[in-house]
Amino acid sequence: MESIWIKKINTDRNCVIYRLDVSKGLMHYFSPNCEMFAEFGFDVSNIPKSLLAVPILSNVMQFAWLFDCLVWIEEVDKQFYECLPKIKQGFQEMYRNYSFGGSLIAAKVIDNHYRAEKESALLFTGGVDATTTFLRIRDTHPILIDTFGWCNDKNDESSVFNADISAIGRFAGENHVQAEYIKSNFATFIKPEKVNKVLNRKLHNSWWFGFQHSLAFLGMASIVAYYYHIKTIYIGSSYTFGQAVNCVSDPRIDREFKAASCNVVHDAYELSRQEKIGTIVKARKDFNLPINLRVCSFKEENCNHCEKCFRTMTGIIAEGGNVNDFGFHVEGDFCEALAAFLRDNVKELDKDHIVFWNDIIARMSQNYNELLDKETADYLLSFNFEKEKRECLWRYYRQNFFSIVKRKLKGIIRRG
Fold first, then answer.
1. Whole-number pLDDT of residue 414
2. Spatial distance between the Cα atoms of 73 and 82, rounded to a whole number of angstroms
3. What is the DSSP letter of 209?
4. pLDDT tens column, 92-106
5. How far separated are the first and last CA of the chain, in Å rounded?
6. Other Cβ atoms closer than 10 A to 170
7. Which residues of the chain have pLDDT under 70?
8. Neighbours of 408 (CB within 10 A)
9. In the prediction, which pLDDT does 404 show?
């Protein structure tokens, strides 16, 4: 049976470094040095090693379950150790036709109980989900936690992470709360492209989306929670009750996460994305709160022309808001820009994203008299996404017929 040994957990002031010994059959899934690091905004040298084990295990255990291997470690936090079977069961409920194996073997299981001194922390990026949860819990003055996991090593600098720090720091200052920032390589030390080849074939999913991201974030946040003696970590829901999406950030998984004395709330799962945008627009109107949303993943600022930006901007319009008041900037006619985008890109939208767009259209119809931009509403109210998607795909295949055939033939030849 293949195995992963968490061989060393070393601290150097604000940084913790994990060294792994990985058996031969698994080595191609890991970076060459088999190391993960996490850099915090405070000294971690006095945090128990059994708790420092949580971030690495929050990235490795789901890998072990998928590939049926053993994980060995000297010591682990008791609450985290006991929550793992429930998290594993959450994955099993999502993927009923796949048998998850693997297990954790710890020499010592240690109770790191503390008396809570602060009510809450919030995983925060500045997006719609996180901002909605902030507005719902802001009276608890949560510590905002932003985590960047895409470094290759400790010396890596990222303009995106620096932009995160600047924007979130400004938001925290405006709302009189604290922010903490974590830098790591958890998204790269397990090679996603290697794991995805297996997951795409067996489970039609990806490592980052289906298994890693929220658990990785919560593992990092557990160290912040211990340092400040926080009672609850909040994570904004990515989807809504009733949407059948196999995403790791799911209440069946997130809410089962526990470490030391903190628990997790998977928040606002009862709200649609459009209802969340409504909450944000209303908060700005009612309390004159400065809210600059950041929805463009892995970019320094909103690009204003991707699907997620257009979808968010259109959602703001549906609530009677002005997109320029929420961190977006549109030059020229918005409706023309949206129409041009959909004409070329509607073919890319899957059923889950079309649900989001249909919610926006329904809200535009309901809220029509309050809209500042009725032209965009009129355009979308007559737009049939399924029909337009079929026509867009037909145009694409017709225009690219020979290049598509050539690409498929090359694939067949390569496979022999």
1. 61
2. 15
3. I
4. 999 999 999 999 999
5. 33
6. 14
7. 401-402, 404-406, 408-416
8. 10
9. 59
pTM of the model: 0.93
* Helix, coil or strand: residue 358: helix
Integer CA distances (angstroms), 126 to 33, 122, 168, 301, in order: 33, 11, 7, 11
Q: Are 145 and 220 in contact (CB under 8 A)?
A: yes
Sign of the CA dihedral running 215, 219, 224, 227 = positive
Q: Quick one: which of 296, 278, 307 has its CA closest to 389?
A: 307
pLDDT value at residue 173: 96
Both tokens of residue 351? 């059923």
| Cβ–Cβ under 8 Å, residues 151 and 238 | no
Q: CB neighbours of 99 closer than 8 A, spacing ≥ 6?
A: none
Task: Please give the backbone phi and psi of residue 126, each rounded to the nearest 5 degrees, phi first.
Answer: 95, 5
CA–CA dist 368, 366 (Å, integer)? 6
Per-residue CA distances from 136 to 14, 170, 234 (Å): 31, 19, 11
What pLDDT is attached to residue 398? 72
Q: Measured in whole angstroms, how far is the alpha carbon of residue 95 from the centre of its chain?
A: 20
